[in-house]
Amino acid sequence: MGYSYAVVQFIVEAHASLHPVFANEVFVVLRRAGCDDALPPADPHLAALTGRVPELRLETKTESSAPALQPVLPEPGAIFKFSALKPTEFAEAMDQFWLNG
Questions:
Q1: Lower CB density within 10 Å: C or N end of the chain?
Q2: CA 23 to CA 43: how far, in whole Å?
Q3: Which tens digit of pLDDT belongs to each residue from 18-56?
Q4: Phi, psi of 69, deg, nearest 5
């Protein structure tokens, strides 16, 4: 799965400056450095978070510069007549709506 440059940069910076204090199968809670209750790096719930960090660091170093920002709402669109849409059309319309902001 490809991540945007900003997401990759955030993950790398968060990993460098924050420490996990709680983790389960769904999420990881991070806290600022200097806490005594950080989870050990070998915690199995951290594998998904920490496993790709070295690879992501390489991605941030190979980027020559951050990509140009796109407008927040280039074409916000509109959804109407929900009852007239087929389920697949409705799902596609909602996806497009949320992609635009």
A1: N
A2: 8
A3: 888 888 888 888 888 666 788 888 888 888 777 877 777
A4: -70, 145
Residue entry with tokens 């999420």: 27
Domain that holds residue 11: 5-62
DSSP letter, residue 73: -
Please tell me whether residues 97 and 74 are part of one structural domain: yes
pLDDT in tens, 72-84: 555 566 656 777 8
Calculate helix-pair angle for 5-17, 53-62, nearest 10 degrees: 130
3-state secondary structure of 8: helix
- Whole-model pTM above 0.70? no
Whether residues 14 and 50 fall in one domain: yes
Which of 5, 2, 12 lies closest to 66 in space, CA to CA? 5
